[in-house]
Specification:
Blueprint: H1 2-26, H2 44-63, H3 67-92, H4 102-119, H5 138-155, H6 171-190, H7 195-220, H8 228-266
Length: 267
């Protein structure tokens, strides 16, 4: 379990660093980070600096050095970007169109993913960020986003089947099926109903999507919208990695707590 968590943390970190590197290549903030057409998003210098900062915060998670505080700060950064850029942008443009909130929900979920990653890591030394209390919210950030995306499979049934690869038959059926699966996973995590199983199945489904949906789309159109299809690969991989970590966290936390109480009684 510990080794698998390490693998998923690395994949999560690589996903975020990958988005940062794409921003450096295209010299623009990706919509999931700062929504277009925010003025700062068209500044090459700000995109370069912002991407360096994003990668730098995420690097300790990758190398497992002070990874817990780094993951917390990463989650807080995503939450700050949501509040400062995404939410105001939505209310100024299309507040009543749920589909246009996709990037806002994605960065909300990425914030939750970072907190999930932090929750899976032990606290080393006496240093704390002062924001440890936000970590339990991580799973709810991810689950709420997954729930909304599942509902959208039904609301936008005229659009979503077009995303299903052409070689897969019955796209409408798979749209409804995956919509139900997303809603079930979201509710399972939110309501703590078979949370570990829900998280694991969600991680598996998202990883399958990375392989059969997102990677082929990115391969076919790597430069479209400044590499946004490649960003979709990284987003789905980050969500999948966090879901797998979440499927392991509860037992680990329970065991750690039990051991701690046992030691306290002995003392």
């Amino acid at each position: 379990m510990l080794n698998s968590n390490r693998l998923w943390r690395v994949l999560f970190a690589l996903s975020i660093i990958g988005i940062a590197l794409l921003q450096i290549v295209f010299l623009v903030f990706m919509p999931v980070i700062i929504p277009w057409p925010a003025d700062i998003a068209v500044s090459h210098f700000s995109a370069w600096i912002g991407s360096i900062v994003l990668a730098a915060i995420c690097l300790p998670v990758l190398v497992n050095s002070k990874a817990r505080p780094a993951a917390i700060y990463l989650g807080l950064l995503f939450l700050l970007l949501l509040i400062v850029f995404h939410i105001p942008n939505q209310f100024l443009t299309t507040p009543d169109f749920l589909g246009s909130w996709a990037n806002a929900f994605k960065i909300f979920a990425l914030s939750g993913c970072a907190f999930i990653v932090a929750s899976s890591l032990p606290q080393v030394g006496e240093f704390t960020t002062g924001f440890e209390g936000v970590l339990p919210a991580g799973k709810y950030f991810l689950a709420l986003t997954i729930l909304i995306f599942g509902i959208e499979h039904f609301i936008y049934i005229g659009f979503v089947p077009g995303l299903v690869p052409k070689w897969i038959p019955f796209p409408v059926f798979w749209t409804y099926f995956t919509g139900v699966a997303l809603i079930a996973a979201g509710l399972g995590i939110l309501l703590n109903i078979q949370r570990q199983l829900a998280a694991k199945l969600l991680g598996i489904m998202l990883l399958i999507w990375v392989i059969i949906l997102h990677i082929p789309r990115a391969w076919a159109n790597p430069k479209g919208m400044h590499g946004n299809e490649i960003v979709s690969v990284f987003e789905a991989l980050a969500f999948s990695s966090a879901a797998f970590i979440l499927s392991n966290v509860p037992k680990k936390v329970v065991k750690t707590t039990a051991k701690t109480k046992g030691k306290a009684k002995k003392r």
